[in-house]
Amino acid sequence: MNPRTPYSLAERTLAFAVHVLTASGVAFGLLALLAAHERRFSAMFLWLGIALIVDGIDGPLARRLQVREVLPHWSGDILDLVVDYLNYVMVPSYALVVSGLIPPLWNYAAGAVIAITGALYFADLRMKTDDSYFRGFPACWNIVVFYLFLLKPPPIIVASTVAVFCALTFVPVAFLHPLRVRSLRWLTMLLLGAWTVFALLALGYELTPPAYAVIALGVIGLYFLAAGFLRTRP
Description:
This protein has nine helices and two strands; from the N terminus they run αααααβααβαα. By secondary structure, it is mostly helical.
């Protein structure tokens, strides 16, 4: 059967609207960056969270509306990588540099290494496994930096954490994709919902929440790490 062409103006408009939705993530990233510059880190993470929601819904919309077929000259994949690099890598690395968690000079070195390794990861065509796990640390520095701001460990621990996750970028260990991995998806989605609630609570407390929230976020974080590290390969 021959492909249906041309597509109607309404179909092309809807398809382009999905690209606009994806691109709106950079606007939220800009707001997050401005908040980081003003040391309003709870607001920064809130804007990054909104960008994360956009990142979660634009893909299903694009597939439902067949955006790739309707607008073949626009690459949603490339657009998504541009937005993700800003929100997952650059904004968190800037926040870490200005946070005071690492002494001067070392803070710039940490931010630069994050930016470089993150850029290399987004250029890796092998970043996904056949069963939808990430191969290597997927440069989700928005999450790592959130935990560093939450726990506020000594500078040597912060620097060591950065070094470990930068190294894991190039190690073929699996990391869970919470929306696409089918194994134990019900549990993953349940814990993702709980994580969101406790993360919002932490932001409401300006990243100094009650101990139970810190413990809950820590346990859920360990689940997501273990779900990738211990995955059974087909």
